[in-house]
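2024-03-11 09:14:02 INFO receiving multi-entity request
2024-03-11 09:14:02 INFO entity count = two
2024-03-11 09:14:03 INFO echoing inputs for audit
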Amino acid sequence: MKITPVKGTNDYLPAQAELRDYLQKTICETYENCGFQRIFTPILEDIENLDKSEGGENLNLIFKVMKRGEKLNKAIATGQPDQIADMGLRYDLTLPLSRYYANNKASLPNPFKVIQIDKVYRAERPQKGRLREFMQCDIDILGSKSSVCEIELIFTTAKALLNIGIDNFKIKINDKRVLKDILLTTGFKEEELDSVCISFDKLNKIQAEGVARELTEKGFDAKVIADFMELVGNAPFSLDYVKTISNNKEYIESLENIIDVSNRLAGGKYSVEYDMTLVRGQGYYTGTVFEIESLDFNSSIAGGGRYDNLIGKFGKEQVPAVGFSIGFERIFSILMERQSGLMEKPKKVVVLYDENQVEEAIMRAEELRGEYSTALYVKPKKLGKFLNKLEEQGYDGFQILGRDEDVRFFEG
Amino acid sequence: MKITPVKGTNDYLPAQAELRDYLQKTICETYENCGFQRIFTPILEDIENLDKSEGGENLNLIFKVMKRGEKLNKAIATGQPDQIADMGLRYDLTLPLSRYYANNKASLPNPFKVIQIDKVYRAERPQKGRLREFMQCDIDILGSKSSVCEIELIFTTAKALLNIGIDNFKIKINDKRVLKDILLTTGFKEEELDSVCISFDKLNKIQAEGVARELTEKGFDAKVIADFMELVGNAPFSLDYVKTISNNKEYIESLENIIDVSNRLAGGKYSVEYDMTLVRGQGYYTGTVFEIESLDFNSSIAGGGRYDNLIGKFGKEQVPAVGFSIGFERIFSILMERQSGLMEKPKKVVVLYDENQVEEAIMRAEELRGEYSTALYVKPKKLGKFLNKLEEQGYDGFQILGRDEDVRFFEG
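2024-03-11 09:21:47 INFO inference complete, emitting structure
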């Protein structure tokens, strides 16, 4: 029997599990306090729903679940791999949310403010060190086009981060409609925009020269590429400057408003800034996109955007939607490294010398449990060594029921 | 695209999700307060670990995950179904716990008191109305043979049930070693005992006549069967009576002690009773077995027992273990039916007439959030209808930011 967990998955030790629980609980309570409602969907989804979804690269990373019984035998007889599975493990929480909304719309408030904190699965190549089972942590607002949603999502997500002890971050925001308008005025054609965005999204990875090279390889006009790269070279720049090169007043003003209100609500705890280079990979974003960057860790810790054309795929009508997702696993590993002592609640132990004292020991533990977590242990052979080990685990008070009914209590 | 969840799984609406969250949280907090520690294991396990495990009937219910890429093509080419999967979804939490303990023993306390609250998967036939994805909720103590463990597990599990509002239950307990000793004195042979236990476990389903018939079909001695069934007919009987027909003083006295101490600790809130007819299906139980029966719902709501030979399968040495599992899904459906009003925390809403009021609206909501969950909504066309719907959802206070900056507040 193999004793290690399967590749790309983790066993979590008690201290790790406690931190994961604490993070989930604090984030979820923050969201609920702000009027969002949690739902649960299955990790198993119909294989056709997954295969037909807008997952981009993720469609190649689906864990597929085999049919069973006679259906399996028939499928194998066809020799076609795509006949063998009837279900798969979800690769994100957005596809299940779209299906859920179509299935349950009549029972849900409109707009629907929803929390999803749950596991997703991707068959990443293990050598890249990526997890194959990981937690996603999303809030979404379905059914409203108002930019009030963006303001609320930014405020609420930042609040959740602050509540779990993450600060020193900035929030970058862009609007793909504004970006596309800039691309148009630079000289790209309407039908080229999506392809340009895909290359431009790699700016941080391959730098400006890399993007220019990729756009050239794609065969775009050299003059247009040069003009665009000059513009990019001047970034960061303000929305006031964008107004001078773009005519798309409506979305620029909306972005300005989101940024101004969000910064005032931030009260100096973080800043919200326009970033014309922000694209976000997912093809389904249709408007605003945003990302939170930790300045301590120089890394993205949350991201999201508006996707007005996705939810409708399951139903008869389009449903505008916007969401923000916290990078749970990134934050978990940051906080594990930081060893912030967040978890150090006082814990006590009652040790009994004699198994016949169990009743008295439980009664004494129950008294302590009004105030502390309190564990019960039968005295092992080496008491001193045992108590030392408990102290390492964070226990700071020991009550010993002695052989002769004496009770000793000492703080560690 | 299919909008319903896959067969045997559920979409949980916000009110259902809130109850599930509350149950998990309350049970977990009770366990942690009593010194148990939560862990997490992956839902994916190596297919060989699953196939070789002691899952009995559950081995036929494993969801298998297909290999990927070139390995999949090679597997399909063999035409052998058992080559196609390399992983599977866990069917319980005991197998992952055994693997986890072998993998992490050096980092864990001894004895290890562990909490597992997590999802498991079984390919049950959907027409039976059984869930294919469901929650299990276990505490286990690994590394101790002491009956202090049984007393603690019974006390702690009962406390968790009381804390979530379940009362009026009784706890039945037996010891398979005592039961087997009774079977021996009745005339069955050592090598027949497991087979007799399997039939006897069906007593509640097929009654005494059914058990007798099955034992007869299995070819056991008619006189022995008749003697045994006469004994069963006289149940319930006391451990004092068992002493007159069995020589196994050690385990009988241990059972007596567990029952006496547990009843005194129960303080009249529930009773713990010897039940010679209790077997529990799982073949891996080696000693005590116990079950909690709801007297309100005439149904088993928790079960467990001692399994001293299972954990060791992954390691070099045997590790004694005992566990107790709450029937989470049974309790969830009981409480959903009862509509106990457990969840009715006061919730408020701030409604804004004009999107430009978003900043003021969020500030006002934040004031309320010190005390209440508070949602924010932009006024829809029909305000009265909208407020009625919110009231149905449990909101009991509304703050309306009016068109002319007036603020109205009223309780629903």
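2024-03-11 09:21:48 INFO post-check: The CA atoms of residues 18 and 202 of chain B lie 36 Å apart.
2024-03-11 09:21:48 INFO post-check: The mean pLDDT of chain B is 90.
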